[in-house]
């Protein structure tokens, strides 16, 4: 018998990396596989939530019973997420969104010539920060992939982006973060550490995280 503790909740999940074009054949991206976000979307749907998954390009199969919105750039993810935002109860931002994109997208393939080349980059919109600023009834969960001072940076992010929970992982640890099927995370709220779990399959991290969210969302509503 399946647990249906998320029935009636509309959950928006973002996953994967974004790709920021430089010219018709090149782009900037990062090592996110999308596995954590897909695991969350799949588990949330299994437990009865209505799920929208906004995803960058990944090699993964879309989960069953989930509405999938495919995007490529940070700007496209921003638009898809903001569009759905008024109609959802929970947002879980597992995507690794590019912080910068090439300032100029060349119409033709760039030719090689000089020995060195400097690329000018500009900031992309911070999606989660915008959601935090425009928060009404929504419960906001962010991810923080860090390589140092994990707890400090995660809590600083939670406050700056007006989040309800932040899931922090040290991506330098074996079996944590990008590409792996497992993750090692700690969860924080405004008051500090909420939970710290050992190395677990991403499916199990997703299940535990959704249980924490369910408790908190049900408590206030
Ligand atoms: O600041 P940083 O990028 O490390 O924050 C990570 C969190 O913010 C993640 O939940 C990520 O999905 C979200 N984010 C975002 N838009 C950006 C950058 C990050 O929503 N442009």
UniProtKB/TrEMBL annotation:
<comment type="similarity">
    <text>In the C-terminal section; belongs to the PPC synthetase family.</text>
</comment>
<dbReference type="GO" id="GO:0004632">
    <property type="term" value="F:phosphopantothenate--cysteine ligase activity"/>
</dbReference>
<comment type="function">
    <text>Catalyzes two steps in the biosynthesis of coenzyme A. In the first step cysteine is conjugated to 4'-phosphopantothenate to form 4-phosphopantothenoylcysteine, in the latter compound is decarboxylated to form 4'-phosphopantotheine.</text>
</comment>
<dbReference type="GO" id="GO:0046872">
    <property type="term" value="F:metal ion binding"/>
</dbReference>
<feature type="region of interest" description="Phosphopantothenate--cysteine ligase">
    <location>
        <begin position="11"/>
        <end position="221"/>
    </location>
</feature>
<keyword id="KW-0511">Multifunctional enzyme</keyword>
<keyword id="KW-0479">Metal-binding</keyword>
<feature type="domain" description="DNA/pantothenate metabolism flavoprotein C-terminal">
    <location>
        <begin position="6"/>
        <end position="215"/>
    </location>
</feature>
<feature type="binding site">
    <location>
        <position position="99"/>
    </location>
    <ligand>
        <name>CTP</name>
    </ligand>
</feature>
<protein>
    <recommendedName>
        <fullName>Coenzyme A biosynthesis bifunctional protein CoaBC</fullName>
        <ecNumber>4.1.1.36</ecNumber>
        <ecNumber>6.3.2.5</ecNumber>
    </recommendedName>
</protein>
<keyword id="KW-0460">Magnesium</keyword>
<dbReference type="GO" id="GO:0015937">
    <property type="term" value="P:coenzyme A biosynthetic process"/>
</dbReference>
<keyword id="KW-0288">FMN</keyword>
<comment type="pathway">
    <text>Cofactor biosynthesis; coenzyme A biosynthesis; CoA from (R)-pantothenate: step 3/5.</text>
</comment>
<dbReference type="GO" id="GO:0004633">
    <property type="term" value="F:phosphopantothenoylcysteine decarboxylase activity"/>
</dbReference>
<dbReference type="GO" id="GO:0071513">
    <property type="term" value="C:phosphopantothenoylcysteine decarboxylase complex"/>
</dbReference>
<feature type="binding site">
    <location>
        <position position="109"/>
    </location>
    <ligand>
        <name>CTP</name>
    </ligand>
</feature>
<dbReference type="GO" id="GO:0015941">
    <property type="term" value="P:pantothenate catabolic process"/>
</dbReference>
<feature type="binding site">
    <location>
        <position position="157"/>
    </location>
    <ligand>
        <name>CTP</name>
    </ligand>
</feature>
<keyword id="KW-0285">Flavoprotein</keyword>
<comment type="function">
    <text>Catalyzes two sequential steps in the biosynthesis of coenzyme A. In the first step cysteine is conjugated to 4'-phosphopantothenate to form 4-phosphopantothenoylcysteine. In the second step the latter compound is decarboxylated to form 4'-phosphopantotheine.</text>
</comment>
<keyword id="KW-0456">Lyase</keyword>
<keyword id="KW-0210">Decarboxylase</keyword>
<keyword id="KW-0436">Ligase</keyword>
<feature type="binding site">
    <location>
        <begin position="125"/>
        <end position="128"/>
    </location>
    <ligand>
        <name>CTP</name>
    </ligand>
</feature>
<comment type="pathway">
    <text>Cofactor biosynthesis; coenzyme A biosynthesis; CoA from (R)-pantothenate: step 2/5.</text>
</comment>
<dbReference type="GO" id="GO:0010181">
    <property type="term" value="F:FMN binding"/>
</dbReference>
<feature type="binding site">
    <location>
        <position position="161"/>
    </location>
    <ligand>
        <name>CTP</name>
    </ligand>
</feature>
<comment type="similarity">
    <text>In the N-terminal section; belongs to the HFCD (homo-oligomeric flavin containing Cys decarboxylase) superfamily.</text>
</comment>
<feature type="binding site">
    <location>
        <position position="143"/>
    </location>
    <ligand>
        <name>CTP</name>
    </ligand>
</feature>
């Amino acid at each position: 018998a399946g647990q249906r503790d998320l029935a009636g909740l509309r959950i928006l999940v973002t996953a994967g990396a974004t790709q920021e074009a430089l010219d018709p054949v090149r782009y900037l991206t990062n090592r996110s596989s999308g596995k954590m976000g897909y695991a969350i979307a799949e588990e949330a749907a299994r437990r009865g939530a209505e799920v929208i998954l906004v995803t960058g390009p990944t090699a993964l199969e879309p989960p069953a019973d989930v509405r999938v919105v495919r995007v490529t750039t940070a700007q496209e993810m921003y638009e898809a997420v903001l569009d759905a935002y008024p109609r959802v109860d929970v947002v879980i931002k597992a995507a690794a969104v590019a912080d910068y994109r090439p300032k100029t997208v060349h119409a033709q393939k760039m030719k090689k010539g000089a020995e060195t080349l400097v690329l000018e980059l500009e900031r992309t919109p911070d999606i989660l920060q915008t959601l935090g600023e425009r928060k009404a009834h929504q419960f906001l969960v962010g991810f923080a992939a860090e390589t140092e001072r994990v707890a400090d940076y995660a809590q600083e992010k939670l406050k700056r982006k007006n989040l309800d929970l932040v899931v922090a992982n040290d991506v330098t640890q074996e079996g944590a973060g990008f590409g792996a099927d497992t993750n090692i995370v700690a969860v924080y709220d405004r008051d500090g550490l909420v939970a710290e779990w050992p190395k677990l399959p991403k499916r199990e991290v997703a299940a535990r995280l959704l249980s924490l969210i369910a408790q908190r969302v049900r408590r206030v509503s």
